[in-house]
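notes to self, project folder thing:

trying the whole complex as one job this time. last attempt i did each chain seperately and stitching them together was a nightmare. two parts in total, labels are on each line so i dont mix them up again. if this works i'll redo the older ones the same way
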Amino acid sequence: MSDLDPAFHDHAGRPIVVVTGIGLVTPLGFGTEANWAALLAGTSGIRRITRFPTAHLRTTIAGTVDLPEEADGPMLTSSERVGRMASLAAEEALAQAGLGATGGFPGPLMLGMPPVEVEWPHRFDLASRVEGEPRYKALTEAATGLESLFGTACFGGVGERLAQRFGTLGAPIAITTACATGASAIQLGVEAIQRGETEAAIAIGADGTVQPEALIRFSLLSALSTRNDDPARAPRPFEKTRDGFIMSEGAACLVLESLAHARARGAVVLGRVRGCGEKSDSFHRTRSNPDGGAIIKAMRNAIADAGLTPADISYVNAHGTSTPENDKMETLGLRAVFGEQVPPISSNKSMIGHTLSASGAIEAAFSLLTLRDQMLPPTINHVEPDPAIGLDVVPNFSRVAKVTNVLSNSFGFGGQNVCLVLSGETV
Amino acid sequence: MPHEVWITGLGLVSALGEGRAAHRAAFAAGTPSPLDAVSHAPFALHPAPVLELDRQIPKKGDQRQMEPWQRLGTYAAGLALDDAGARALAPEMDLIVAAGGGERDLALDEAVLTALAPLPPAEAALRLNEMLANGLRPTLFLAQLSNLLAGNISIVHGVTGASRTFMGEEQAGADAVRVAAARVAEGRSPAALVGGAFAAARWDVLLLYHSGGLLRRGASFAPVFARGNAPGAIPGTLAAFLVLESADLARGRGARGLARIEGMACEQARRDGTDTSLAAARRAAARLDLPDGPLVVISGATGMAGPAGAESAFLAGLDRAITLRAAGNRFGWGVEASFPASLAMAALALSDAKLPAPLDATEAPFEGAPEKILVTGFGAWRGEALALLGRIPEEAQP
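result (full assembly):
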């Protein structure tokens, strides 16, 4: 086939990038179909934390994923949880794609994940090996020869193990752009295929940092909801009484391929990543510029990269964290991009909470399922509309709709904003 | 490649000093880098130079929002923008950072362990929540979060194009440059600011790297290819940022290039018996258009014995005269900053038409002007990266 074959290239002459496998792990469960059914039913995955004591914590609820290997033993560290959930999502996606299931995937791994580090269980273990004061110098000596600790806590470790497991090519890339991480991982894979570096890539977003120190750190930023008495009703994106986000865990994996590669091997195409846009903000470490400039530009960049106009977007999978600030700014941005014609929007985080480094990938996966089934998932817990929002947030119940192109928003702390346009039929 | 990619500026901070002039002088003199064998004994390290932070991070409020690693990187990023005269490009420039992070409040960690390590685990877990809730500073989270080096560079220097933060020790530094160069080459982005930073004098990172057996024990320096019975890396505080841009953009704005990027390739051997570092490096080399004849190599060798052996075998297998200069002999091991710093050293050598003076017997004298330089990065734990840089002919310069 010719490089210029219009059936396989987009408006910019780049190879069309499609998705042929999806894998999902969220607080709603394991597996794509179970997750999607629960999401359409408006199920909440938020509950009281039972994995560790919550005394002295301002927020005691989260969207935790209970891994089978934790049932009878100690909780895994964040790095191990991230790797385990990423692996589960990848297994499902590769099986669906029918590609690389034998441990030899014909492309690179793009892994969106949180920064990992030596954690408290490790530190307590090291301290137990120290005679005398547990100072860092003594702890360091006690770490002599603990290569497994290094493999767990170094930045390259999670990706290395996944690359080994799935036999991806080249060096795995681990990326973090805060709450936009999962979308950034997809974008890296899409760009590598568009450049012709590869015909296929695995993109994963994974997070598993529900542990005491991380909860306290987010609490100190006043970012978390404290509606501890009623966990399922705590995340309220775009609702008047919203008071913060809920930390959650999960992973999503997309198998990305050039359309030509997918067609040539007879793969079922699940949807298309049609455009990616990003724009960073220089205003503040945790807040958007009040003019919304960067998030507006990120949305416009994604729509333009897809070769579309705002009128072509049928639905927005919102970032919708449920913090007063984000939802206000996202509304402002949507109004700037879409004018009076803002399409329906909804926030998956009303049900699964904020899966942080995973959210961009999980929400891209749900966007593809939205396109497949022509069903908009709801924004639950919509009790009292916020007059300052005034958008169709698909309140409380899922809805049949004609969906052609979905805009999926991810806006991160640190001003890193990434938007994706996902589409259904490719021709 | 539709666009030729030039390095038009570098921001380099190491124990040797900051900027082109300080490094040029130190490279020419062949003097060893300062060594601090005391503060973190039994590990020696190359210490940070004294920086006047106000010169690149003018607002004290911004400085207070960062820990040393973020300040170091933000400072070096500003140096690179100034060196390239590229401040005006910042709003549309890509920013790709190879990040460390996780700078801990060491005093709090030690206080927690002292108080709680003797307790039964269930009681310790309860008290841990209390001590952290009362002890953690609200600003610390953002001050040490990996993607906030990029966030701070955006805030302080106004770089607001694509922003990506890669994690993964040395390989993250190599992939950051590879992806940044690829985006400029394909015309997706006009210019990129890319690099990393590493603050060596931190027990929390020394603990991690020592657990992996990556650090050389002892008070003395030895060249990276001659660490014999005391192998391992000597960490060095290091920050290296590069400004990359298309040759057309640089010529159009009258900016001279230091070097052009002729190819980059990153691989990662499993190093588990099924795949070797040597094989991975050969796969990477096959993707470069290496010139015939003698070759100048700037090596990113860390001092780890295994990767150094693989690199020696790889270079021997190129079957030609090799003139070697080891970046690690001058900077120490800068983890995420290592590969960008090696590229900066190569770019400076091509631009100055002069290689650094030899530091030991593995570094043969070289009097001529290098035309092309192969930069290697064999990671201490994982990763094999190669880049080929070339001299920009005078007639191609603006």
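what i see at first glance: DSSP finds 14 helices and eleven strands in chain B.
need to look closer tmrw
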